[in-house]
User: Fold Gene transfer agent family protein from Sphingomonas spermidinifaciens.
Amino acid sequence: MNPARGEASIRVSGELLVLRPSFAALVAAEGELGPLFALVERAAAGRLALGEMVALFWHCLKDPAPMPREAFAEGVAAGGLAAATPALKVLLGQILAGR
Assistant:
């Protein structure tokens, strides 16, 4: 993991996965979720849906997931919001900073 590149990590079903908010990843996330600024606003207001967070994580995976998306989503949910929040904060910060 390279914090200088805006990377974060999350443990999903026992796998430590690296998230990197590259331009291509954010464009793909925006294609599914709509404008990223609106996503950040929803997150700031406490209205970010679990499915939106999972989708953002999915698109920002640095390497291909070692599991299908449904299993990834289940793993993120099983890990709990407290475990996912640090990675989410890093990604949202990178979206706003534009690094």
The chain has a mean pLDDT of 93. The first helix runs from residue 23 to 33.
